[in-house]
């Protein structure tokens, strides 16, 4: 019986090639998009689940309670030792310090090219917590020894030209020799830890105060602490026990710390601690579902529209003894055959567009990851879902046709499916497309607003150049003097980082003037020389610039500090004393800067002070003249390389850095554009199929209208208005939904664009224009035909 269903289904599909092709293409695009989204979601959902004891691995994090709650994915350096020795909750505890783009060079290699790579300094127990298998190791040696390291095969291949790196040596920061004592398997792409070189923690701990064992006062975002708990631990009980630590070790601090344990599985999807937004994963899943639903709506509309022409076939079948369930399964079989072809074509489309998808999100997804039981279960579920959803309604409608009316040709179109159902489905289709277009426009406006709005400082033609660590101030001043003589350099400043670099912000407590206690908020330090304001064109609203001294005695602050302190004007800040860094730094406010954005637009502007501290400078900022930029950079490179021989010169344009802050949003915008276009494309395929049906149904009517004096424009308007009415209804339904969804998204931004009415009007007009283009070809083809030919059509 089933074999017979399939055979008849195949004959019917071949007989109506155009409609079959439209249905297959629509479903294939939906399937292909769903497969790509499935790949994307499974990639993100599989982060760090490869560790053997992933359910017992936690990261220690800090909540800072001041005027607002801050979240830091780190703890004070002393936390690890105390948690290891004073509590009996964990099998292993390990600290990890991550540094980005440090200089590495292979020792003894002639004309060795230095590299800039991300590295991690780890305590030995780190590899007892995380499952990163060793390929080979040097005897009984371990990372307990300073100046030793493990390296991944991929990194070894890059640095040494071969994965056989055991016993080889490289130079860290052109100063410290690091011996490779172990080679690791390459880390999975779904690993929280992304470095390829793991240096023993003891190599670092004696040279950095922020990772010293006894330090409780500061938290560095570079340091993280991981623990492997004993089985069956109660996390709430552990966190309650940790509440005593701040009282014991930081009793006088106004910044109240609360230490918590974050599950390894939560790290990738917790935006509070720098992870991805899990809401976006749901959005992508819903978009994939929408695309499949639009394709199903196309199928239902076209199938029910064709039911009128198959009514005699159904009447004959019923007369010959077919029951309703036989007819139902017959039409469901046709749907299954179409879906089967569509899913094969969808896989092919996914394979073809996967490289572009990877490029868009900077991923390395592969179709080879799909050939597993989970994917085939997903594919089977989608196939059955689409087949049943698309085929059941047309099957039910057709099986209810009265055979006597069908054989006598007295059936109306309402008897075979009803125009109301088709209109409702088309409205739903239009509503989804309008929502996606409106969302794309709003996301685009927000990103444009964030990237192009005045940030309070100049970012055009400014180049940031990293400088090596532990550079003597005299050496840096000498380089600055040499660079300032280059004709293409307009201004130059030595600094910790640019004004908007949130990743290098240094937050500290502040005590203002004669107030008895520290304030309830932190202040951010921007360490720089006196040319900082001129280089970044930051205006002073009161007072003067500071003078450079051997120690910090004068500082600049921004207007935001006065607002947080409740002062009436910026002038009230001048001449006042502040204490920062736990009271170790005391200085006088000599100038007040205009506010500038020190982070992206999701964060409010922070209170800021700028002070001269040459031992903390890590970058040179150069304002270039726009003429001969390439020649100017070459001259800068020459003088920089002469000063810092053996280091890598890598200039970064500041405007590009600002744009990179919104790289994730740019990717989401691109994805929104792609899927909006796909939704519209699938919808257009369905509209094309419907217009083929309607034009064929009303050919004689068009001929009569032309004989009675109607022109082409009248006929085109006749067909268009029916769809335009449906688009307007869809717009009325989609507008509040799109507005609500995007209002929720924009709440993540402190500084945001406005949602205007014209955005939704533009989305509706766009759908109208696309619809008009879609239906014009077939409509015009019939409208331009001879009325004699139209009147002969039966």
TrEMBL record:
Residue span(s) of domain MacB-like periplasmic core: 20-242, 431-629
Subcellular location: Cell membrane
Keywords: Cell membrane, Membrane, Transmembrane, Transmembrane helix
Domain of life: Bacteria
Mode of membrane association: Multi-pass membrane protein
Segments passing through the bilayer: 21-41, 280-302, 327-355, 375-403, 424-443, 674-695, 716-742, 754-775
GO cellular component: plasma membrane
Name of the molecule in the record: FtsX-like permease family protein
Chief subcellular location: membrane
Pfam families per the UniProt record, alphabetical: FtsX (PF02687), MacB_PCD (PF12704)
């Amino acid at each position: 019986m089933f074999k017979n269903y399939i055979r008849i289904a195949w004959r019917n599909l071949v007989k109506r090639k155009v409609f079959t092709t439209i249905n297959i293409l629509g479903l294939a695009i939906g399937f292909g998009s769903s497969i790509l989204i499935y790949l994307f979601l499974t990639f993100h959902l599989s982060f760090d689940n490869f560790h053997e004891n992933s359910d017992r691995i936690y990261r220690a994090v800090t909540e800072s309670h001041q005027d607002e709650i801050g979240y830091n994915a780190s703890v004070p350096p002393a936390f690890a030792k105390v948690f290891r020795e004073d509590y009996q909750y964990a099998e292993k505890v390990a600290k990890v310090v991550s540094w980005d783009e440090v200089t590495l060079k292979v020792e003894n290699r002639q004309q060795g090219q230095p590299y800039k790579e991300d590295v991690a300094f780890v305590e030995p127990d780190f590899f007892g917590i995380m499952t990163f298998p060793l390929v080979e190791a040097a005897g009984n040696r371990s990372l307990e020894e300073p100046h030793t390291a493990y390296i991944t095969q991929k990194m070894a291949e890059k640095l040494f030209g071969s994965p056989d790196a055991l016993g080889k040596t490289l130079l860290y920061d052109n100063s410290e020799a690091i011996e490779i004592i172990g080679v690791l398997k390459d880390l999975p792409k779904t690993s929280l830890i992304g470095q390829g070189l793991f240096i023993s923690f003891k190599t670092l701990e004696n040279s950095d105060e922020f990772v010293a064992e006894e330090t409780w006062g500061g938290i560095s975002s570079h340091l993280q602490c991981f623990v492997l708990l004993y089985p069956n631990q109660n996390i709430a009980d552990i966190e309650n026990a940790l509440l005593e630590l701040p009282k014991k070790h930081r009793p006088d601090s106004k910044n109240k710390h609360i230490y918590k344990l974050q599950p390894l599985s939560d790290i990738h999807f917790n935006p509070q601690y720098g992870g991805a937004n899990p809401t976006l994963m749901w959005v992508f899943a819903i978009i994939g579902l929408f695309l499949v639903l639009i394709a199903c709506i196309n199928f239902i509309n076209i199938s029910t529209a064709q039911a009128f022409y198959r009514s005699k076939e159904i009447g004959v079948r019923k007369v010959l003894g077919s029951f309703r369930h036989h007819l139902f399964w017959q039409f469901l079989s046709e749907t299954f055959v179409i879906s089967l072809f569509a899913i094969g074509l969808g896989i092919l489309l996914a394979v073809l567009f996967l490289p572009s998808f990877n490029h868009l999100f900077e991923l390395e997804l592969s179709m080879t990851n799909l050939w597993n039981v989970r994917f085939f279960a997903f594919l089977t579920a989608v196939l059955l879902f689409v087949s049943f959803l698309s085929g059941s309604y047309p099957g039910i409608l057709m099986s209810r046709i009265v055979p006597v009316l069908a054989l006598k040709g007295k059936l109306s179109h309402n008897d075979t499916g009803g125009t109301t159902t088709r209109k409702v489905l088309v409205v739903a289709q239009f509503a989804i497309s309008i929502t996606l277009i409106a969302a794309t426009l709003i996301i685009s406006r927000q990103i444009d607003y964030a990237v192009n709005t005045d940030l309070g400082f100049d970012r055009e033609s400014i180049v940031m150049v990293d400088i090596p660590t532990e550079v003597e101030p005299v050496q840096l001043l000498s380089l600055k003097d040499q660079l300032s003589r280059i004709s293409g350099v307009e201004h130059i400043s030595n600094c910790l980082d640019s004004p908007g670099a949130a990743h290098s912000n240094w937050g500290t407590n502040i005590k203002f003037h004669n107030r008895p206690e520290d304030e309830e908020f932190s202040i951010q330090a921007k360490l720089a020389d006196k040319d900082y304001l001129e280089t970044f064109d930051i205006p002073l609203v009161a007072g003067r610039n500071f003078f450079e001294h051997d120690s910090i005695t004068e500082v600049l602050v921004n207007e935001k500090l006065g607002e947080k302190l409740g002062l009436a004007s910026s002038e009230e800040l001048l001449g006042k004393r502040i204490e920062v860094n736990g009271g170790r730094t005391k200085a006088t406010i000599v100038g007040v800067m205009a506010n500038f954005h020190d982070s992206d637009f999701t964060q409010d502007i922070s209170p800021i002070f700028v002070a001269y501290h040459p031992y903390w400078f890590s970058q040179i900022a150069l304002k270039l003249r726009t003429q001969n930029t390439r020649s100017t950079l070459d001259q800068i490179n020459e003088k920089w390389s002469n000063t810092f021989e053996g280091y890598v010169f890598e200039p970064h344009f500041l405007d590009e850095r600002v744009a990179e802050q919104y790289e994730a949003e740019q990717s989401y915008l691109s994805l929104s554009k792609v899927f909006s276009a796909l939704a519209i494309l699938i919808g257009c395929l369905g509209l094309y199929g419907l217009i083929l049906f309607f034009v064929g149904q009303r050919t004689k009517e068009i001929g009569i209208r032309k004989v009675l004096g109607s022109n082409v424009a009248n006929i085109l308007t006749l067909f268009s208005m029916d769809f335009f009415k449906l688009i307007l209804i869809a717009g009325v339904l989609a507008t509040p939904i799109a507005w609500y969804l995007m209002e929720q998204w924009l709440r993540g931004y402190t500084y945001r664009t406005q949602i205007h009415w014209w955005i939704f009007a533009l989305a509706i007009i766009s759908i109208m224009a696309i619809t008009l283009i879609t239906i014009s070809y077939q409509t015009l083809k019939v409208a331009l035909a001879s009325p004699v030919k139209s009147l002969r059509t039966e």
